[in-house]
Amino acid sequence: MLKSLHLKNVGPAPEMQMELAPRLNLITGDNGLGKSFLIDVAWWALTRKWPQDLNTNLTSGYGARPTEITKKSTIEFEVESKTGRVKYESTYVPDEQSWLGKAGRPWNPGLVVYALADGGFAVWDPARNYWKKKGNVDIQDRVPAYVFSSKDVWDGLRIPIDEKPTQVSNGLVADWASWIRERGEDARRMAAVLEVLAPTGGDDSLKPGESFARLSINDARDIPTIRMGYGQEVPILYASLGVRRITALAYMLSWAWREHLIASKQLGQEPSSRIVLLFDEIEAHLHPRWQRAVVPALLKVMQKLTNDEDARVQLIAATHSPLVLASVEPLFDRGQDAWFDLDFENQEVILRKRPFVRRGEVGNWLTSEAFDLGEPRSIEAEVAMREALNLCRQATPEDTDIERVNTLLQSALGDTDRFWVRWTAFRESLKAPKGKKK
Ligand SMILES: Nc1ncnc2c1ncn2[C@@H]1O[C@H](COP(=O)(O)OP(=O)(O)O)[C@@H](O)[C@H]1O
Ligand SMILES: [Mg+2]
């Protein structure tokens, strides 16, 4: 697992320091402050490759660039591996256009799965991507990682290995269809993961359909289906973006674990039931019901996948969703979990670890440091309320101002808004005879 990151003169801030927690790590911050960037760097620290360098069809995951090329840029990190804790420092060398550090293979933190915001995935498998050591020399005779564009997840990934085009995945459509037909462990595993990731379980859960679908008379593929709550079995390619996002995640986890088991067996090694899960915009395309369920589900998913109660997940996720933060209130544990927030202050981006407190209603998260809204309402309502509160503070407000602000409030607030109580009380207090008024 990743223990810490320390960046200087790279990315949006002059310096960033992150002491990660062993289980859940949530990152919040406005657009463009560096959430995705931090997750890219976390992936690089764990695997020492930038996703974009391994698959140019991705629309993100580019290598980190120094902020000021004439100054020294460093990325330091600590990883806890099978054999203990290790520290690494890398410096950007402009001549080589790359990050250089002590030579050597990455350490083995267990499986690493990165869900990129554009629907792509990257997988690093200790059994397949961890290269060999001969004497004191590292020989990188393994593929450094498997990086899928969003299309590759569905249609398969073929990459050159030792100059031979090699099919490393058949893709969700073909693999899932064949797993269902075999009626074995693979189908069970995929269904179990889908069930955990669906918001409610029971009748509502995300279940594989019984039938396959043909999309046209020329398309020879038998497309797996998803059973919807309303009884129809929908070809998975036609399912909503949210359902496809979750199904793609279930497939990538199932595929990564399945291939890890097969490779471990071939190598005569014990499989590793540790996983680091990197997830950008974890709520992307998900309805609030799903947003509320996704993080708690991911913390449980490894146990389902591996059938091992001791399986460990470190989750590092970026979010813009107040529901995601509210959803972890019951489980957040300071010893195992952390919340990081990016802010823009005095012309600088600042990364902070914030103390996590329960806020009760979801709207309270919107006005917290996580999202920094003035009011959990429309912009118009926020402006009207600000003006109203200013008037409340005046000793002798003008009648015309009160009427004007009243009209603003009427056009922006709902009839049952709690703010009416305050505003009405203020107006009543002005009508009271002089002397009794506070
Ligand atoms: N690979 C990179 N190297 C250096 N700087 C980057 C890199 N990727 C993004 N940045 C910088 O970080 C800023 C934030 O980008 P990003 O992490 O995508 O924001 P967000 O918080 O919305 O995910 C960008 O405006 C850019 O200046
Ligand atoms: Mg982003």
What's the short version?
By secondary structure, the chain is α+β, with helices and mostly antiparallel strands. It has helices at 35-47, 51-54, 150-155, 171-182, 185-197, 241-267, 288-306, 322-327, 362-366, 379-393, 399-412, 419-431; strands at 2-8, 15-19, 24-29, 74-81, 84-93, 98-101, 111-115, 121-124, 132-134, 137-139, 146-148, 157-161, 164-169, 207-213, 223-227, 233-235, 274-279, 312-318, 337-345, 348-354. It is globular.
Relative helix content: 25-40%
Shape: globular
CATH topology descriptor of the largest domain: Rossmann fold
State the name of the first-level CATH class of the largest domain.
Answer: Alpha Beta
Q: What's the total helix number?
A: 12
Notes on the structure:
The chain is an alpha+beta fold and 438 residues long. The chain folds into 2 domains: 2-162 and 269-366, Rossmann fold, CATH 3.40.50; 379-431, no CATH class. Helices cover 34% and strands 26% of the residues. It contains 12 helices and 20 strands. It has helices at residues 35-47, 51-54, 150-155, 171-182, 185-197, 241-267, 288-306, 322-327, 362-366, 379-393, 399-412, 419-431; strands spanning 2-8, 15-19, 24-29, 74-81, 84-93, 98-101, 111-115, 121-124, 132-134, 137-139, 146-148, 157-161, 164-169, 207-213, 223-227, 233-235, 274-279, 312-318, 337-345, 348-354. It has an 8-stranded mixed sheet, sandwiched between helices. It has a 5-stranded antiparallel sheet with strand order 2-1-4-5-6, covered by helices on one side. A 3-stranded antiparallel sheet has the order 14-15-16. α4 packs across α5 and α10 (379-393) packs antiparallel against α11. The longest helix has 27 residues, at 241-267. The protein is globular, with a radius of gyration of 26 Å. The protein starts with a strand and ends in a 7-residue tail after the last helix. The protein binds adenosine-5'-diphosphate and magnesium ion (MG). Residues 35-36, 117, 280 line the site of magnesium ion.
